[in-house]
Amino acid sequence: MLSLYNIQVCNAYTELNDPVVQRERFAEQLKDRQSGDDEAMALDETFCTALEYGLPPTGGWGLGIDRLAMLFTDSQNIKEVLLFPAMKPQDEPSN
């Protein structure tokens, strides 16, 4: 997470795109699966083949327009820059 002035600006991530390392990790999880771990992944050979053919680096960051508006307006709270909640009609008292 990239932060500026103690505000979350965007989520940053990176993913493993080395086919050899990925295949090793799948093999480790397959051993775990065979020993009873229901949440362990099976070996996904199709995915590893796609990595070998040159899956581009999968990484980056996602910056929403709301976070960008917070940065430009020096807002401390995201509610200050969200448009749609401000457009919600006020409940009028019934007579």
Describe what this molecule looks like in 3D.
The protein contains three helices and three strands, in the order ββααβα. The protein has helices at residues 19-34, 45-53, 65-73, and strands at 2-4, 7-14, 59-62. It has a three-stranded antiparallel sheet with strand order 1-2-3. A hairpin with a 2-residue loop joins β1 (2-4) and β2 (7-14). α1 packs antiparallel against α2. The longest helix has 16 residues, at 19-34. The protein is elongated. The mean pLDDT is 78.
Structure summary:
The chain contains 3 helices and 3 strands; from the N terminus they run E-E-H-H-E-H. The protein has 95 residues and is of the alpha+beta class. Helix 1 runs antiparallel to helix 2.
The count of domains is 2
What is the number of helices? 3
Question: Which strand-content bin applies to the residues?
Answer: 15-25%
Ends distance: 50 Å
Number of strands: 3
Sketch the topology as an H/E string, one letter per element: EEHHEH
Query: What structural class results from the helix and strand content?
Result: alpha+beta
Overall mean pLDDT? 78
Q: In what order do the strands lie side by side in the largest sheet?
A: 1-2-3
List low-pLDDT spans: none
| Helix proportion | 25-40%
How large, in whole angstroms, is the Cα Rg? 23 Å
For the sheet with most strands, the description reads: 3 strands, antiparallel
Shape: elongated
